[in-house]
Amino acid sequence: MLTRRAALSRSWLLWPLNTVLGASWPEQAQAGGQIEEPMADAVRNAMHAAVHDAAPPEPVFASTEARLHYLRWKIEMNRRLISRKTDLKTFLERDEFLQSVWYNCKRSRLDVDLVLGLIQVESNFRKRAISPVGARGYMQVMPFWMRLLEDGDVSKLFDLQTNLRFGCVILRHYLEREKGNLFLALGRYNGSRGKAAYPDAVAAAQRRWLHSATRQSTLN
Q1: Contact 121, 205 (CB under 8 A)
Q2: Cis preceding linkage at 132, omega within 30
Q3: 163 or 151: which carries more pLDDT confidence?
Q4: Using one digit for the tens of pLDDT, what is the confidence trace for 102-133?
Q5: Nearest residue to 205 (alpha-carbon basis) of 79, 81, 114, 112
Q6: Phi and psi angles of residue 130, each rounded to the nearest 5 degrees, phi first
Q7: Are 2 and 10 in contact (CB under 8 A)?
Q8: How sure is the predictor about 72, in pLDDT bands with cuts at 50, 70 and 90?
Q9: Domains in the chain, start-ordered, CATH in brackets?
Q10: 23 close to 17: Cβ distance less than 8 angstroms
Q11: How far is it, in rounded angstroms, from Cα 165 to Cα 159?
């Protein structure tokens, strides 16, 4: 079991090259990539339907308290994004990004802090990040997914909504393949299944994106 210090040290190795070296366009990311594998038609069809549900990412809340929780979360995460000096320069860019992350996490049954941690490790919040193996965008989606589930136009992976929708659907797919085992699902997402470095890095980053109310509840 890694200590927090060791996990953070290992996570540095997985951060985008442009974060370390200040590389210019196109922004390179030091992330792995999903591996293309045989897929049953039923699974492909279900994923195709999920990524083509292009409804506007408008969250729906069961109660006023749930909506207030979301608004408090968005305010706090907006401040954290500002402090990280990401490519999300304006309030409107950050607001759209956070709303889209929340929406796609909820529809894919994923924790928002997990996905924000994954985005930090994969692309460091760089919209046009490209890894050495060709993964693209915030969630570093591999181009073959566009051939399997879309029209093959990989440039769409730089679109905010498309990238987050694909990334969350793919992570949910891997979680189901691994029967809920997050360690193995994250490894599969990164193309390093069974190795600890990537899941440890995401876990360390995830803790930085816990909402204050959530963090407090984990301490009680």
Answers
A1: yes
A2: no
A3: 163
A4: 999 999 999 999 999 999 999 999 999 999 99
A5: 114
A6: -130, 125
A7: yes
A8: very high
A9: 4-20+39-54+62-214 (1.10.530.10)
A10: yes
A11: 10
